[in-house]
Structures are given as C-alpha cells and as structure tokens.
Design brief:
- By secondary structure, the chain is α/β, with parallel strands linked by helices.
- The longest helix is centred in the first third of the chain and has 11 residues.
- It has a seven-stranded mixed β-sheet.
- Helices cover 29% and strands 24% of the residues.
- The model has no long low-confidence stretch (mean pLDDT 96).
- Strand 4, helix 5 and strand 5 form a beta-alpha-beta unit.
Length: 210
C-alpha cells in the first residue's frame, strides 16, 4: 500500500464514496477491499472479485477473500470468483470497478488461459458498471510502443495502449493522474526487481461509462 496522503488521493481519484458499490478486481491480500469497505459503510457494498484464472494459486485467493468477508464489520463485503468475462453474471451493478496493478495481466498467457482477452474483459466491465460509473486503472508503466510483450516479461504496459483499448469498449477518459509517476524508472526491468520494486513508474486512469 501507499503512504496515507497518496492513499487518500487515490480514493478521491477513484470516486469511492459512502454508499457506493465497488468491485475490487483481483484483490490480492485484500488491502483495497478493506479500505473500500471502511469508506462505503453500511449503505455501500464491496465485491472482492477473484478471477477463476488465478483461483488455483497456492495462497488460496478465494479462501482469503471469503475469510476477509467474515471479519467483524465486513458485512458489506462479498467474495466471488468466476471466469474473467463472467464477472457481470456474479456481481451487482457497480459505481466503481477498481483494477490495481492488474490490467497488464490481461495480456498474459495465464489470464488468457480460459479464452478471455483484454477486449472481452473491458466489455464485461462496461456491462457491469452503472451509467456514469467509473472504471479506474492503476498500473506499472512500460515504454511507449504498440507491443504488449512487456506485460508478460516485465509486468508492465504502455498507458497509451491501455487508454486505446478501454476507449474501444465505449468508455470515455474522465481523468488521469501522475501522482505515482517516477521519472527515474527506466521501464526496462521487471517490476519485482529489487532495484525498482515498490517504486515503479505508475499511471492512473479514470474512465467513465457514458
């Protein structure tokens, strides 16, 4: 997670407010799910969506999120799992769909193992969001270029490529932020490399469903 000032700024950027319905896609350890749960309150709802493509991982991501949903005060959280493109079938209409350091994975063999593409998933997000809802993407930046090869090898993706793909699904770019930018990142090494881990150059986009 980030320092408190950046956390607060990201939440404001994502337009997550009390009473909102949020889908946290591929929630990892659940830090964002917990934060959103606290913010949306008893009138809101947070769905922790674990793609079936990763449900077999040794850390049992589905079990982790189900356990989180049973924590005291988490009555507004539900954990669900399904194939990526089946997300609209297992979640409720949302005000915000949140992807943190995950969009690049849509271009990896693992996430495409069940036949889903990034275009398929973006259409699924469009279907699930309410009109006026927000699709918020934060990810590791790759060097500019038309190839998505860095998504598999470096776990990075070109922000301009992301924007092009998401807009192709019908979304409109509502805002972008450089709050997580790092000009000292060469974009040439894997995000897990100790030289750059936790300090990668990151972009943040907020798209709106018209």
């Amino acid at each position: 997670m980030y320092e408190q000032s950046k956390l607060s700024e990201l939440v404001r950027f994502a337009r997550v407010d009390a009473g909102a319905t949020v889908i946290d896609v591929y929630p990892g350890d659940g830090d964002w799910t917990r934060l959103f749960s606290d913010i949306v309150g008893t009138e809101g709802r947070v769905t922790s969506f674990v793609p079936a493509e990763v449900a077999h991982f040794k850390n049992d991501p589905v079990g982790l999120m189900r356990a989180l949903a049973q924590e005291p005060g988490r009555e507004n959280v539900e954990a669900v799992s399904a194939n990526l493109v089946a997300m609209p079938e297992v979640t409720r209409p949302a005000d915000v769909v949140w992807l943190h350091l995950f969009y690049h994975d849509l271009h990896t063999a693992l996430m495409q193992s069940k036949g889903a593409t990034a275009a398929d998933f973006n259409r699924a997000v469009y279907e699930r969001l309410k009109p006026g809802g927000f699709y918020v993407i934060v990810d590791h930046a790759a060097a500019a270029g038309p190839s998505t090869g860095d998504a598999q090898s470096l776990h990075r993706i070109d922000p301009a490529f992301v924007r092009k793909e998401v807009e192709a699904a019908g979304f409109v770019l509502d805002a972008e932020s450089t709050m997580l930018a790092n000009r000292n990142d060469s974009h040439a090494i894997k995000v897990f490399d100790p030289l750059i881990k936790d300090e990668t150059d990151r972009f943040a986009y907020r798209f709106v469903k018209p």
